[in-house]
Amino acid sequence: MLTHKYYVCLPLLFLISSVIFAADKIDPPLLPDPLTLEHALSLIDRSHPDIALAMAQRALAEADLVVEDSSTDLYAGIEAAARIIEPSRLAFDQSNQDHEISFVVRKRLYDYGRNDSLLQAAEYEVKGQQWRVIEAQNQWRILIMKRFFDVLLADLAYARDNEDMSVAYVQYDRLKDRNELGQRSDLVVLDAQSKYMETRRRRYHSAAMQRITRSKLAISLDFPDQLPSNLVAPDLKNQTRPLPEIDALITKARNNNLKLRAMQDQLDAAGKRIEAVRAQSGVKIDAEFEVSAYKRDVASNDEWQASINFDIPVYSGNREKSKVGQRTAEYQRLKSLMAREKMRVREAAIELRLQLEILQAEKEELQVLYEFKELSLDRNRALYEMEVKADLGLAMVETTSTRYRITKTNYQIELAWARLDAFTGSYILESEDEKKPTE
What angle do CA 133, 137, 140 make, to 5 degrees? Predict the structure, then answer.
């Protein structure tokens, strides 16, 4: 027979099981339909591997900072020893138990600046890792932008190729009918059929790219099982942005490039570690206070003692020299890597600037071409309505193709500006969990 306590527990168990069952039924978050670029970029708090790795490195640097900051903290502890001895025949106390317990307090008062150097090195490491976190976040944003644009371009490419295939099929079907009437040769029909098959193959490829680009975007957003159906074409804000002067751009990139700033902090940390190693050969001063209790009563046992301890190295062989050599070699290695990165930054800044200039010229060219195609389409449409020209499809395909090229160039300009902004350290979007390091 159930006791009273079981009757009390049953409703509680039922409630817990209901909560667990309901938790299992909670659906995962869904991507909105339609999906905007702003919403896609807002998903940066999800666990992208590159960002998670950079954050883990930052957490490790922060833990090292705590270790260095606490290395000279006050120590208080109990030290005890349980010993069985054979006392000397001259000892007044002939007991065999020589146990003792002590309460000890120690504090490092001075270490020739070693701890300060290590603490500053750890601070530089934390700041450098934070720059790398922001860099990873920027690269993630650019990847999302590119894959978002790829989906939109894949849809436009499919519309273009589908229209092209339809026009090719109409031409092939028309020639096939005329061939049956003896008005066109088999060679002409086969040529039209070949062109139709070619456009059909391009359409199949475009349809496949619609799926592929959506899959890549979903994976980047950490929604691998939810392919976005409809995307909203974003407002492009950098299409008329003036191009910076090359010299000013190079200066800005060398001063603000996130990777360079992280490498500079790493180099400064290495310099502080050299100072810390050199400080090991300096004077160290500790304060110590000890209160003890003993099992045996011996004249040499002190109930308490307070002392100031000095450690003055006189000779340590090549140990300190070799450590300084290791730290100096590491400093020179980092310095060389940074010099190489500065060269790469200069080259990339010039390349990005000139790429934008080329894209702007291409955009102007395509705009003129599009206006020409629009006028040609209007003329062909008028001729078609007057039954002067029987084919309007080719002009429509050319106009759609030119529109696709313009859109692609606009997206390339937007991506180039995003890369340039990230490269010069100004493409930084902060949230509650993304804070720039203090200067």
Answer: 140
| Tokens matching residue 12 | 């509680």
Q: Which amino acid is at 157?
A: A
pLDDT at 50: 80
Q: Where does 28-89+97-378+391-423 sit in CATH, by number?
A: 1.20.1600.10
Q: Which residues contact 34 (CB under 8 A, 6 or more apart)?
A: 228, 229, 230, 231, 232
Containing H/E element for 143? helix 114-180
CA distance 348 to 402: 30
| C-alpha to C-alpha distance for 250 and 233, rounded to whole angstroms | 32
Give the tens place of pLDDT for each residue, 258-281: 999 999 999 999 999 999 888 888
**Mean pLDDT of all residues belonging to the chain:** 83
Question: CA 313, 317, 323, 328 torsion: positive or negative?
Answer: positive
Look at residues 79, 4, 423 and name the one whose alpha carbon lies nearest to residue 252. Answer: 423
Q: DSSP for 357-418, please give it.
A: HHHHHHHHHHHHHHHHHHHHHHHHHHHHHTTS----HHHHHHHHHHHHHHHHHHHHHHHHHH
Sheet containing 75-81: order of strands: 75-81, 100-110, 284-294, 304-311
Residue range 68-84, pLDDT digits in tens? 878 788 889 998 988 88
> What residue segments make up the domains of the chain, in order of their start?
28-89+97-378+391-423
- The DSSP call for residue 184 is S
Q: Please state, as a whole number, how many other Cβ atoms lie within 10 Å of the Cβ of residue 390.
A: 8
Q: Give the model's pLDDT for residue 381.
A: 61
Are the C-beta atoms of 168 and 196 separated by less than 8 Å? yes
pTM for the predicted model, two decimal places: 0.76
Average pLDDT over residues 5-27: 45
